[in-house]
Fold this sequence. Notes:
single chain, 1721 residues, 7-stranded antiparallel beta sheet, 18% strand
Amino acid sequence: xxxxSLPLEIRAKLAELDLELSEGDITQKGYEKKKxxxxxxxxxxxxxxxxxxxxxxxxxxxxxxxxxQYEKAQKKKAKRNLxxxxxxxxxxxxxSDAHTEAVQQALAKHNKSKRVPVLPLGLKRRSLIAHNVYxxxxxxxxxxxxxDASGGGEFDLSLKRKTDDSSSDRSSHSANPSPLPTHRFxxxxxxxxxxxxxxxxxxxxxxxxxxTSSNEDLSSISNKIRLAxxxxxxASDNQPQPxxxxxxQSVSWEAQRSGGPPTPLSKKIADIMPQILPGSRPTSQSxxxxxxxxxxxxxxxxxxxxxxxxxxxxxxPIVIKPSPSIGRRSDTTSYGRTSISSVEDDExxxxxxxxxxxIQQLLNTLKETEEEHELERQSVTHVNKLAMKLxxxxxxxxxxxxxxxxxxxxxxxxxxxxxxxxxxxxxxTKGEPATEHSNLPHSxxxxxxxxxxxxxxxxxxxxxxxxxxxANTLTYGKLLSxxxxxxxxxxxxxxxxxxxxxxxxxxNSDPISYVCTFYGCMLAGIVPVTVEVPMSSxxxxxxxxxxxxxxxxxxxxxxxxxxxxxxxxxxxxxxVQLKGWPKLQWILTDSKHLPKVPSNWEPTARSPDNxxxxxxYKTGKNNSVVGVAHSRSLIHNxxxxxxxxxxxxxxxxxxxxxxxxxGVGLVHGxxxxxxxxxxxxxxxxxxxxxxxxxWLSILTKNKAxxxxxxxxxxxxxxxxxxxxxxxxxxxxxxxxxxxxxxxWSLGSSDVFLQEFERKGLRRDAVCPCAWSTEALTVAVRRPxxxxxxTTISLHSLSFGVIQTEVNNQATSLMIQxxxxxxxxxxxxxxxxxDSIEFCHSDEVGELLLCPKKGGYKDSLYFGLAGISEKVFxxxxxxxxxxxxxxxLLGYVGPSGRVFVxxxxxxxxxxxxxxxxxxxxxxxxxxxxxxxxxxxxxxxxFSINVLKDERLVIIVEQKPDVTEEECFKxxxxxxxxxxxxxxxxxxxxxxxxxxxxxxxxxxxVHLSETISRYLEGVLRPSNIxxxxxxxxxxxxxxxxRHKDIGAAxxxxxxxxxxxxxxxxxxxxxxxxxxxxxxSDIPGAKKNTRRQSGGGSQTNTLESKRRSQFLAEIxxxxxxxxxxHVLFSQINSKGGVGIQLTCSQLHKKAEKVAQLLMSCPxxxxxxxxxxxxxxxxxxxxxxxxxxxxxxxxxAGCIPVPIRPIHPxxxxxTSPTVKMIVNVSKxxxxxxxxxxxRMLKSKEVLSVLGSQDQxxxxxxxxxxxxxxxxxxxxxxxxxxxxxxxxxxxxxxGTLMGIKISHLTASQLCRSIKLQCELYPxxxxxxxxxxxxxxSFALWCLNSIFSGHYSILIPPSEVETNPHLWLQVVSQxxxxxxxLTYSIMDICTKDLAQQVPSLKSxxxxxxxxxxxVIVAEERPRIRLVSNFSKLxxxxxxxxxxxxTSFGCRVNIAICLQxxxxxxxxxxxxxxxxxxxxxxPDPSTVYVDTRSLRNDRVSLVEKGSPHSLCLMEAGKILxxxxxxIADCDTRGQCGDSRLGEVWVASTHSSNxxxxxxxxxxxxxxxxxxxxxxxxxDTRTTYCRTGYxxxxxxxxxxxxxxxxxxALYVVGPLEETLEIRGMRYHPIDIENSVVRCSNRIxxxxxxxxxxxxxxxxxxxxxxxxxxxxxxxxxxxILEEQYLIAGVVAVLDPGSIPVNSRGEKQRMHLxxxxxxxxxxxxxxxxxx
Length: 1721
């Protein structure tokens, strides 16, 4: 039809219809209907013509008014589409067409050609397996597991999530809706499509369903259509405009490809626009991260019209604004899930081991899950690349570069095809008018009095024992007599006032004592509170019941003799007070303990109707216990309603299999039955477990007409059913099923009915009952009423919509009605939120009940008035009478019958969908329940992780199941739940038999299970977590912007007014002539008296001497020979060795002579000048003497930590490596170490190829020749010593330190810390590298101060040693490491009072400096300061230092003299008195991941406390440089710390695995590109920032604080963000007190978390969900592998720093012997 002659309004509406069809907002069928309706008035006058592609776009609008209306409609539609697109995400898991016949055939073909991936089994230590009841092997073959899984028959299930296309061919979906499934478990319903079908769907999806883009994308569509209209109207037909030409060519290309006619242009717009719109992508469901980086050889080919499209866009003035997703689409899925690139193979990679094979198996499983999405990712990547070419270059606003993309989590997916309610708003449904019976008693007590006086010998209650025999029968006369005795005892003997609350504690095996006591309380006007018998404080829910009793004010408890015998007692035989319980007075109510009632005694006046009748406890989902209280009038009216509705009569005999103390068993089994006057048999729980068929014999024998059961009882009866000819159920007219709120319970009822129908059981006798603790009996199907069954879709039910189905399929639920509304009552269905609005007629909601006469006005949660008002007096819209919330989910059918689909407490809201826990339990049981698990021992609940609910399934497994079979069954369960319910399982845990907490009647105590799971005390035997599958709301990965340079950063800082980040220490004054002479009294005066050339010679000599530490030692030995420099403390706290200047000089000379006279391995008579000598000494004075002996001899010392005798295998390779890399020609050590180096143990560790050591020199030997020691270095730039250290990343690095650098370092430390000969300091360091070595060996010689050396090994054996020495010598300045601080904190935490009583005092300490090369450990420092505050340690005294390889001392805290009352004043200006205290800041961890610093307040979410690294040393300048651009950062901006100093290292001697020269240029000679570009800096390799504080320094200027965040080489690049391992580790350590240490590393694209367990091995598996949860919550990361280790398994160096790379290598090479390794899917 030619539309050119149509009115403008009609053409505008047609264009809008075309746009709706192209965007997928309307189906093809709806499009044709609306189009036919618009063209119907013009059909007669219009002739159909062929529409060319260029004419499919609406023609040019000439009328201004019509044009305005058209544009307005377009904008309105675009806004509406934008609003829906922001919230819409397709979730293909909920596709209904996944179960059609065609898909089933494709799935069958797929299963034949491809094996099912198998989950990697968690590795267990054999000792841990021994704890389990069942037998399992800790080693399994992956190949065998795969073979077993592939041959699974009907349960050959795939782990892959369904990804059916929901956007292809929408018309077929609407015209032929696919049938929805049933409650039967069909494995084929959850299998995947074939690869060929998926490929076709991907092509269709990329060509027609890229419609959910940004607002700019939608508006650009309208702009292009209007532009095409103008171009088509102004240009000739033969020469179309560029855009139209391109569209026509694209149509022609598609026609050639498909072989059919060209597609109309109005429909082709939907295919072309997604390709030219930036950021357009299919809104498919969330995908797991591509941890294996799978690539496909083939991809989606680019359309051939790309060049023409580019040319057309350039010629047409079309502005396409890029979407924020450009640049990161290739790294993300539709929900921002990262696709981490794979790690390339390395030649040095460890061999494939058991652990690495498990990781590879996990990767292969995820790889197979990802293959089906690869074609889609490639096509979307191509579209994004095309969009990048089309976009006009435009810089983003400056502020956008500093915004965190990941701060907000992804919203839950929105299914555009989700079913929605379409029926009318429902109205309250009223029951039939109630019939009043005039002959019924006016109260419960009156009913007992009538029966007890009229027919006292009539049986009331019969108790059945465990053997099925009648133990005791209570008549109505005895009941009346005994309840009077109890009432008399309570009111007259015990003085319990009417209206008081009193506890009833009775076992489940004694219903007679309970019913007498219950009615006795009611007769006395006392409110009974029934609780379970507490056997111990560890019983499930025991403390919560105690809280309820305390809240009710209970002080008296009634019980019986049988119960008292089982209660816990103390040594005196008294009942102990349980934890959380109030102090109770216990009263026995057995007949022998009750006094005789006087004949003239009558109970008090009748209690008012609004008085409470009883309080029943109810356990909530969060493990809270509330008391539900009902009034007497309500209970009385409810009993009358039951009698009239269910036709109870005195001649009936009832069999009660339920708990007679609460719920249906109490109201129906004791109250209504006794109110009627019938005879009740109580069947105990023990009998049902022993002989479930016995109750049928009792029913037959006594010709019972009523029975109260649960579906569990029916199942047990069927399981133990054996043919018995004596069973006759003809007399049974009502079998009341109490748990009909669970729709799956009716399955047992139907099977029971089919089995026993031949025994006389009538079909209309099964009466399901909907029960609520708050509303009592909500609905019950009356005897003689036929059942109404219907089948509804579980898929639609997850959206709260009722869609009935004809055929039973895998995802369908068959439910039956629970009867009509009670007579006189009204039921309303409202939404489950707090709005209390009526639902649609085809919508599931909560059932609200309004009884006749408003009977619930006095019911409440005792002590909770606010919650009671919302629950018991809810007012729906436009309703005058109050309703009560029943807590039941359901709807009212067209026939007026009530249907219940579940409970509010069992409702799981996951990703915006509603799932019922009972439905998931039924699915789990359908997966081979007999072989693996116990029926009825399954707990299903959800926990909140990462702002969404996650599904957790806890199951008790049978003891004879192997571990491999367990994991196969678990994989089947995960697939079944995902395929049938469309929800991923977050955690599936298997417990040993009887591992779940139970209720008194054997049910699963759900709230206690949740509590134990969150606390980590469930003790699972197998666990499988699948966070990759179900966590779909991770933040979007960060995209690094490469279009910013150093100049852009500088421009931004200038615009925002940010100060450039740089700070300097105090100016280092030039070396004076008598700098060292000033340390000696009188030296200055003697120098002044000299004259002439002698003074000049002394000046030059003094300057030269100050540049060489060896010369300084000789000078001190000559000038102050008796001055004590060092004292080494022994293990008892005394001085073991003390060295003066002269003694140290002589000791060093002896070492030098030994070196000079020792022959080398090559036969040279002595060592040459410049030879490297390895020093292997324990911390002490021998190391110092050996160091200066090497300097005297002209050798270059290389300090090396010796081999540890208790860790030979771990330390020997490192020692050997340093010896080899340093090219040491000799080893100087002591005799014991010399023997160890030559021992077989060490040589066996090193291997046969590397067993040779350089010549070993024993320092204790005497030199063969006493040669003169006269070596003097010619220049101070010569090498003084080599400093080797292994970083936490596992890199061995050696730095060169010259004589000048060493002297300048000592000079800066001397001025900073005010070290003079009169000072004394205590050192407890690891003196082999860095600042520790400088303080131990160098500074005392240069400054002349007294150093007390405390070997760390002595503190490890005697933790009191450090405190004893500091207190005994009254040391003011102390230097220690984190390892020493950790020892003193852990080992002496409980001994502080005893230490204080022994006189240990730390009040003299004014500066306690922690020497480390890492971020300050705030938690350890805080614990240490709080612990020893009682010993006088000031919290201001503890400070930190900072150094690194390029500069071993950058920050060091000067002493604070203001802490002490007595001060030592030196001649130099006191810089420490006015030095500000170390400052702390709180930063946002989310900003740190994006290389930014965002300061927050203390206690803010995601806050991290950082402590200042110390004060910058004199002569040192620090700047912060951007890691990428190397431009100078601004204040409070994160970057790499660069330093310029006179004492920086002279370069790398060797970097293991690198080149020293290249690393020197890249680390020691770098310049800023912006800012201070002239200064040469050294790169520290640490991230940090500078911040100007409000404090002032000694010069009066504001203090600049340096904060170190962490080493750059240790950071983990995950999802485009930078994570510091210490942050993840701190989060993990906080999650459980059983985790003593943690270390994380990244391997094979998986985050591996290793934790050390402080506890029994059987608690290891409890840590897996705790660790996974905390990392998700705080770090937004998924832990791929969780390894539980023994304490001490994580390697650390002598400074207490974790060696994460050594841990990684040991883990992959199976050298750790982990307790358990969990592989999270």
